[in-house]
Write a structure and sequence with these properties.
The chain has about 600 residues and is an alpha+beta fold. It has 15 helices and 24 strands. It has an eight-stranded mixed β-sheet with strand order 6-9-10-24-23-22-19-12, sandwiched between helices.
Length: about 600
């Protein structure tokens, strides 16, 4: 018999009764019923119940061990009594009569329970992540991640893509976030950068003639944490294709995503084809460029209805309305709670009216609306009797953010929200440029390597703020999975695009010399995308926080509480790297 096990804990069934077995695993739980010990033994594959009778060496050994100790046991498979069968456990029809025990790894007192999801805080969980990963939910999430990545690799290869690796040590690149820098020992005063993404290298692979590339790529960005963003590092499915237009990329990604979400979504529907929504339309209808389409409500621009109005709360402002049908049975508490929610999003309040059976309006602001306002409003919105109308007024971006959140919350509260589905969409036609609110400077609004719609002619003849780019985002259930673009592959277009954003020719050549040199030797039209692996698994696992799908994440302050990173280094190492430290002055609190 094998030194440690003849079977896994999760594989024994009724057909194994009267078989002598050897198992190894962790002491998951223990119950003492009149001196008879019942032990749940756990390994990677599942749970099995052990029985240790009073007065036996096995009873004494198993009774004195701490939970989470690792043991090897020998025993015989026996049938459970009819009253003790556990139908929720694959091994629930049998148990193991233990005859011998060997302690392989004794455990100290554990800092939190493994066999229940208690309320231990995240900091403690990350400090003892190796214990946290023993929990069933976390173990399941990490295995889901593994299975998803394996399936992606298989499907991408079947679609004709070649998996390739790109460098981890590279040059700094202005891609929208801070780089992590690595000092060079051999080149004093110079630094490598960890890649924010393999953007330039995957484009260079297209120029080199490889046609279809993919990679499960580690990416590094020195940015703050969010529920859907892990600080420090993350993984994405990097994809690039030659001789393609936007729709060619969409077809590949839709097929992949539909299959992955159907395979691992636990029976939840994944819609296909994915609707294409222009950026400006998304902002108007949904208040967001990552709309949650499970909410079956839309916003409407009613600014014109109140142009010249005497109602000061709306006069001269951008006004957005949300019609919520079938609210006749909603009490005042519903409206108050929606107002409280809007305040949590940054609003000063939430104006609303009801539409009566005679199409008159009632509610807190009804008295401020003229008959002309009411007629125009109902005509624009098509609101029927029994509907409620919520309003937001202010600057466009502010109103979009608040009313976008109100849209989803109102849908959830009134039954206009689809549960247990994946609703995808493409957001397209992003502006190429935007104006910095503080400086007034024109800057890239998305990926600087994107091809402008209209090419060089658009760059030379249009107002920069009117130029659209061949850029796109893929969104699922209100989570942005990825941005992508058809790339700018023409040197003159690249020079002009960066000139508009304030980069002269010398600066572009200094920053992107390798790319420009490659473009000058025959570059094919190409495009790509890079869906986030962590976010995909977060959606599939139905987890609200991305750290629940990563084996060893950093915390919200970009610290590794398990390994103690980031760490200090001694003076000798700093001298070797030609570095000296200048720490910020400490302040008295």
């Amino acid at each position: 018999m094998h030194r440690y096990r003849s079977h896994h804990c999760g594989e024994l069934r009724s057909q194994d009764i009267d078989t002598d077995v050897r198992l190894s695993g962790w002491l998951h739980n223990r119950r003492d019923l009149g001196g008879i010990l019942f032990i749940d033994l756990r390994d990677h594959y599942g749970l099995v119940q052990l029985v240790a009778r009073p007065g036996t060496p096995a009873n004494e050994a198993l009774g004195s061990l701490s939970k989470e100790s690792v043991v090897r046991i020998d025993g015989r498979v026996v049938a459970r009594g009819a009253d003790n069968v556990n139908p929720e456990l694959p091994t629930g029809e049998i148990e193991i009569e233990v005859s011998d025990v060997e302690v392989l790894g004794a455990a100290e007192q554990i800092p939190f329970t493994i066999n229940t999801e208690d309320g231990v805080n995240e900091e403690k969980r990350l400090e003892y992540r190796f214990l946290d990963l023993r929990r069933e939910r976390m173990h399941r999430n990490i295995l889901l991640r593994t299975a998803v990545i394996s399936a992606i690799r298989h499907k991408m290869t079947a679609l004709g893509f070649n998996e390739m690796a790109t460098p981890i040590l590279s040059a700094t690149s202005p891609e929208g976030a801070r780089d992590f820098l690595v000092p060079s020992r051999l080149h004093a005063g110079r630094f490598y950068a960890l890649p924010q993404a393999p953007q330039q290298f995957k484009q260079l692979l297209m120029i080199a003639g490889f046609d279809r590339y993919f990679q499960i790529a580690p990416c590094f960005r020195d940015e703050d944490a969010r529920a859907d963003r892990s600080p420090g590092e993350f993984y994405q499915l990097d994809v690039e294709m030659s001789f393609v237009e936007q729709e060619d990329v969409f077809q590949v990604v839709e097929k992949l995503m539909s299959e992955i979400f159907e395979e691992f979504g636990g029976g939840r529907e994944a819609t296909s084809p994915f609707p294409r929504i222009p950026f400006r339309e998304a902002m108007l209808k949904y208040g967001s460029d990552k709309p949650d389409l499970r909410a079956k409500l839309e916003l409407a621009d009613v600014t014109d209805v109140f142009a010249g109005s005497d109602f000061k709360a709306f006069a001269g402002k951008h006004v957005r309305a949300l019609v919520v049908p079938d609210t006749a049975d909603q009490t005042r508490k519903f409206f108050d709670r929606m107002g409280d929610f809007a305040v949590e999003q940054g609003a000063k309040g939430l104006a609303w009216v009801r539409v009566g059976e005679d199409r008159t309006l009632t509610g807190p602001i009804a008295k401020f609306l003229t008959e002309e306002n009411t007629t125009a409003l109902l005509g624009t919105l098509g609101a029927e009797p029994g509907a409620a109308i919520f309003f937001g007024a202010g600057e466009f971006d502010e109103v979009s953010k608040i009313m976008g959140a109100v849209r989803v919350e109102a849908a959830r509260r009134t039954g206009h929200f689809e549960e247990n589905v994946f609703r995808f969409c493409w957001i397209v036609d992003f502006p190429m440029y935007e104006k910095d609110e503080d400086t007034g400077k024109i800057e890239f609004s998305h990926n600087p390597f994107s091809m402008p719609q209209g090419g060089l002619e658009a760059l030379e003849g249009k107002d920069p703020l009117d130029i659209l780019a061949w850029q796109y985002d893929i969104v699922c259930n209100g989570v942005e999975l990825s941005s992508g673009a058809i790339r700018n592959h023409e040197p003159e277009v690249m020079y002009k695009a960066f000139e508009i954003a304030g980069y002269d020719k010398e600066a572009v050549e200094a920053e992107f010399g390798g790319m420009l040199r490659a473009f000058k030797f025959g570059a094919p039209p190409h495009g790509g995308i890079a869906p986030g692996i962590d976010r995909i698994v977060m959606l599939l696992a139905d987890e609200p926080n991305i750290r629940e799908t990563i084996a060893f994440p950093l915390n919200g302050n970009a610290q590794d509480l398990l390994m103690g990173a980031p760490t200090e280094v001694d003076d000798a190492r700093l001298r070797e790297l030609h570095l000296s430290l200048r720490k910020p002055p400490q302040t008295n609190k």
